[in-house]
Amino acid sequence: MIFTVTSNGQAASGTFRMVLSSPEYHGSARGGQFAYILLPGYYLRRPFAISDCGEGWLEIIYCTVGNGTRELSGMAPGTRLDVLADLGHGFDIRATKDAAVLFGGGAGIAPLKLLARELAAAGKKVTAIFGFNRAVDIPEAIMDEIRSSGAEVLIATMDGSAGTKGFVTDALREHGCSFDYWYSCGPLPMMKAVCKAVDCGGQVSMEARMGCGTGICYGCSIMTAKGARRVCKDGPVFDREDIIW
Amino acid sequence: MVNERLSVTLAGVKMDNPVVPASGTFGFGLEMDRYDLNVLGGISLKGTTLEPRYGNPLPRIAETPSGLLNCVGLQNPGIDAFLATKVPALRKVYGGAIIANISGFSLEEYVKCCERASACGDIDIIEVNVSCPNVHGGGMAFGTSAKAAAEVTSAVKKVVKGKPVFIKLSPNVTDIVEIAKACEDAGADGLTLINTLLGMRISLATRKPLLSNRTGGLSGRGIFPVAVRMVWQVAHACSIPVMGCGGVASAQDVIEMMMAGATAVQVGSENLRNPLACKEIIESLPEEMDRLGIGSLTDIIGVA
User: Fold this and answer.
1) A19: which of A31, A94, B50, B199 lies 20 to 30 Å off by Cα?
2) Cα–Cα distance between A84 and A87 in angstroms, integer?
3) pLDDT tens-place string over residues B242-268
4) Residue B68's Cα: distance from chain center in Å?
5) ipTM
């Protein structure tokens, strides 16, 4: 499906957000699903978690980590991009009984933004705990949008320049939230630490270098407790107990 | 619905059109849920071995200019599960040519797998992969020597009854024609070429190879001219049919590959960029043929 860039701008140091629109797209993404975008001049598509969507548009939040994302960050409104939208299996909000905590780090906040809205709309209590290196890395406007969707947002920074000093798990300890389920997306060590610190059930969104994005090439298969699973198609969201940490 | 202008007969197997998704780029068929598979002339299923395999650790994929490297490493459920579940499930929904792609680590393993695949009525063609670059102590080792390739060919030909055996050749050789001829002399019914070219990328950040297996197989648009050259060389030196493979991304590429001498044409990596690639290529073939004054695709096989 061809989308047109409608806005693209910096949200924090090294973090950008882009809104893409297409009249053929109906805002059907679930939190945790991704858009697979073909960038001109690159052979393989790049996966981006869909951070929000509506009738005719979707939003991605991304960090500039390589040549492709650097070029993406410079794309002007009006640029047309070939996008495969709503790929993979997203988070399951039904797993939460009453209250959920979302743990995010870096670009991992992206799918949690959409998830927070879904959970809040379903009447669940939502607390999002986001970890950053420094205060300048926090996309404040995005934090405000997540708050206005009905979630409480807590911050942890490594240098202590905002929120709790340390990891998301330190912020959890400091605030002592009560919840019955959790969701996480971000660096593997962060998700692993959350798994260790929290006893109740949860789901994690995994990342992998992908080939097809649609499940046909087996380029992103990880070994799980249930056998080999494709991150792009069976995931990217997996139950915590399925991941072999 | 079948357009006879597109139909081909490949080693006795009639196909509605020459377009076949290449092994490893289309799972076991049913993974593709975006269109009716019956538009496809054939489907070459993911490489299958005697025992189940997880394959290599991640990362298995690295991008290249106009292509990609992979080191998936033959992830598959093993020949028995393949025959018991994957093939029958596909046959339920698909009437075209089902091509089983068999890999091995020893002559005995190739023979055992091919013998079992031969007994499966749902399989139309057996494609013996002697050219996988991503597994150690097997695969490509059989395809880089004329003697070893011929040994595999004659051994599997002894146990396969009633269906053609294609040998899938490696481009990582000095003289592909010599190996192709050795396979033909050993009784191969056809040849598929080319498998991937061995390559490597290095991460500038970690200063180490990007892929877990260090090296990987290069595929994609960038290898198309290499594939055309090798198909042309082999098709002109051998009299058995060739399935052309390597970098095919459009109806024009299919036609070019057939002009080089291919009777059927496999589309691989393009399925990874565009899940509708095969379907779109087949749909655009008639218009492209009209433009080029081609009445029937069989008329252009090997004209170059």
Assistant:
1) A94
2) 7
3) 999 999 999 999 999 999 999 999 999
4) 16
5) 0.94
Q: C-alpha B63: how far from its chain's center?
A: 21
B144, two tokens = 């880089």
User: Which one from B113, B132, B245, B278 is the annotated catalytic residue?
Assistant: B132
Beta bridge partners of A99: A125
Residue B277, SS3 per DSSP? helix
- Tell me whether residue B45 is in a domain: yes
Tell me what pLDDT residue A58 has.
Answer: 98
Which CATH architecture is the domain A206-245 placed in? Ribbon (2.10)
To the nearest whole Å, the CA of A84 is away from the closest chain B CA by: 9
Q: Where are the beta strands (DSSP E) in chain A?
A: 2-12, 15-21, 34-38, 46-54, 57-63, 80-87, 99-105, 125-132, 152-157, 164-165, 181-185, 202-205, 221-224, 227-230, 237-239
Choose among B154, B161, B38, B188: nearest CA to B98: B38
- Asked if residue A64 lies in contact with residue A71, where contact means CB atoms within 8 angstroms, the answer is no
The phi and psi torsions of A6 (rounded to 5 degrees) equal: -105, -30
* Dihedral Cα B128, B133, B137, B141, nearest 10 deg: 60
pLDDT at A61 over 80: yes
Domain total in chain B? 1
Domain residues for the domain of B220 are 8-300
In a mutational test of the B interface, the residue from A83, A218, A224, A232 whose CB has the highest number of chain B CBs within 10 Å is: A218
C-beta atoms of B72 and A215 within 8 A: no
Best residue in A216, A224, A233 to probe B by mutation, most B CBs within 10 Å? Answer: A216
* Pairwise CB contact (< 8 Å): B272 & A223: no
- Asked about B132 being catalytic, the answer comes back as yes
Q: Between chains, do A218 and B64 touch, taking CB under 8 Å as contact? A: no
A145-157: per-residue pLDDT in tens?
Answer: 999 999 999 999 9
With CA atoms as reference, the chain B residue closest to A40 would be B66
DSSP state of B141: G
Encoded tokens for A134: 């420094």
Assess if residue B195 is contained within a domain: yes
A122-136 pLDDT per residue, tens: 999 999 999 999 999
Residue B243 region by backbone torsions, left for phi larger than 0, else alpha for psi between -120 and 50, else beta: beta
Beta strand segments in B161-292, E: 165-168, 190-193, 197-199, 216-219, 242-245, 264-267
Residues in chain A: 245
For residue B1, tell me if it sits in a domain: no
Q: Is domain A93-205 annotated with CATH 3.40.50.80?
A: yes
CATH architecture entry for A2-87 = Beta Barrel (2.40)
CATH number (domain holding residue B265): 3.20.20.70
Domain residue spans in chain A? 2-87, 93-205, 206-245
